[in-house]
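Protein modeling request. Please complete all fields; requests missing the sequence field cannot be processed.
Requester role: graduate student
Desired output: 3D structure, token encoding
Chains: 1
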Amino acid sequence: MSRTRTALALGLAAAGALSVASVTATAAPAPLAGSTTVTPAGHSFKAALSGKATLKAGSVTVTCTVSVSTGTVPAAPGNQNPAGPVSSPITPPTYTSCTSSIPGVTPTVTTSGSWSVSMQNGSPVTATMTVPVGGLVVHTTGLATCTVTAAPTAPANVAGSWVNGAPPSLTFTNASVPVTVTGGFGCPTSATSSVFNAVYKVTDTSDPAQQITVGP
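Delivered output (216 residues):
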């Protein structure tokens, strides 16, 4: 074989190898989310804080011992998704009986807007609470006057987990929430995110004898 034909053959072989490699690299699609069903369909529920909820921004931690939110499981067939999570609107959670890690500082938490929680069946069952823009605001008074606004520019998805049980629980462990902080001396104005921890027990308020359950 001539030198020219040999070079051409090697070039074609290399091009073919690159094409195969490219196809191989892009041929595997991302795995689809599994099916999710939340039952009982159409039932109302209440999520009540178990223990305490903490929101830490910079060196300041706000701790609340009372928090409640309510919602409704979508009616059938909306309570089923063959390839993804099932979402339910919830009332903005209330946060009361709150204290600050800074002595002489009193926090007040206000919530507003359209909140939701979505469940994705799996091992474990994952939960995502969506906070609307500016949907949670912490204002402190006393020795430091600060304002902490969660989800300041866009809705924020707060990652958590769900465990079926009697009652089931919804848990957020060191979940990151974007924030902005304004204020004077003593305020963590450089903080751009906060850490949220809370455990909620969920009860079926349509029929207390039943449990809200997440499955395939």
